[in-house]
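HOLO CASE FILE
Compound: magnesium ion
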Amino acid sequence: MTKPKEEKKIESLKGQIQKGKGVDIGTMFVKCAYKEGDEIVFKSQRNAFFEVEHTDFTKKILDNSKVKYIIKEDNLYVVGDEALQFANMFNKDTRRPLSKGVISPTEKEALPIIELLIKSVVGEPAHKPGGNGLPSNRQSHKPEGDGSASYCRSHKGEIVYFSVPGEPLDAEFNVLYHIKIVEGFLKTLGYTPKPINEGHAIILSELAEEDFTGIGLSFGGGMVNVCLSFMSVPIFKFSVAKSGDWIDQQVAMAVDETASRVSAIKESSLDLSKEGDLSKIESALSIYYNHLIEYVIENIKQEFAKARRLPRIANPISIILSGGTSLPKGFSGRFKQILDRLKLPIPVGSVRMASQPLRSVAKGALIAASADESKK
Ligand SMILES: Nc1ncnc2c1ncn2[C@@H]1O[C@H](COP(=O)(O)OP(=O)(O)OP(=O)(O)O)[C@@H](O)[C@H]1O
Ligand SMILES: [Mg+2]
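Model generated. C-alpha cells follow.
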C-alpha cells in the first residue's frame, strides 16, 4: 500500500536537523535549541571561565580531554562547564564574560570567551546556503579554520534567533553593543542572526493557545526581563538589572556569608511557601525575594501607566514565570500573593510557571527561527 504524501514527508524528516535555531545568551548559561525531526534538542554551557597556570603540559592534558579553553597573552582560561569544575577544585569562583545580561565591560577577555561558547553550543549550520536543500544531518562542531569560510560571510545562511535583554530601566548601559558583537559571531559561523527580546521569546514558547497574548517574565541570574504581548506583538518590554545574583549579594551582606554559599542554599533547598522556622539565610532570602517581586510588579505598573495607547484586551491575560530564579518551591504562590496586593491595571487570569523554565527562552527563539525559515 502506498503511503499518503504528508506521511511520507514526515517520515523523511525523522531524525533530520531542521532549519532554524534558537539561542539564549544568558548571564549564567548559553543555550541552543534546534529541531531534530519532531523533537527539540537543547545544548547548554555555563557562561563562565577560570584561569589556570599555562604550561605545555596542562595544555596537552586539556587538548586530550577536549576541554574548551583560550590562550590570551600567555594566560590560559578554561571555558564553559569545565570552568566550574576547575573553580571548585581550587575552591574559588569562576569569572563571567557577561554581567547583568550583556557583555561585561570589566572583563577584557569576555569577547573570545563568548565567541567560543556560542560556537560550542550552536555549532555550524547544518544547512549550507547554495546546497541541495537537504540537511547534512550532522551537528558539526569543527574547530576554527576548517575550510568552511567559503560560506561564512554569506548573509543567506540558516536563521538563528538569539535572545537579547530589554533596555534596563535601572542601569546605565544599552544593549546595542552586545547585540552587534553577538550578531558578528553568529555571522562568522555562517548564520543569519536575528535578535529576539528575552521576554518575547517566552511568550512565543508558552502562549500559543492564548494567541500569544500575555506577559512573559524571565527571572534570570543578572536581570529580570518582562514583555507584554498582544497577538504576538510586543506592547512594552524592559529589563531590571536585579535578579538572582543581586539576591545572593544582598543576602550575603545581610547575614555576613559568601554569595556562593547563599546561592548554594538558595538553589538546593529554598522553599518560599514555608512560613516560620526559617534559618537566618532562609529568612533573608525570603525578604529579598519579596523585594524583587514587588520591584518587578511596580515597574510593570509604571510601564502600563506610560503606555499611551493600549490595545483593548477582551479576556484576562496570562502571566508566565520562567528563569532560574523562579525555580524555588512556592515562587509562583509568592508572586500571586504580591500581585493580588499590588494589582495590575488589567485583569489577570492564569499566573503559571513555564513548562520548562530554564529552556523557554531558547525554545521561543527556535519557534521564531522555524517560522522565518518556513517563509523563505
Ligand atoms: N533551583 C534554583 N532555585 C533558585 N535559584 C536558582 C535555581 N537554579 C538556578 N537558580 C538561579 O537562577 C539564576 C540563573 O538563572 P538563568 O539560568 O535563567 O539565568 P540566565 O538566563 O543565564 O541569566 P539572565 O537571563 O539574567 O541573563 C542564578 O541566579 C541561579 O542562582
Ligand atoms: Mg535568561
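CASE NOTES: The first strand starts at residue 17 and ends at 25. Residues 26-29, 101, 218, 220-223, 243-245, 263, 266-267, 323-325, 327-328, 358 surround adenosine-5'-triphosphate (ligand 1) (CB under 6 Å).
CLOSED: yes
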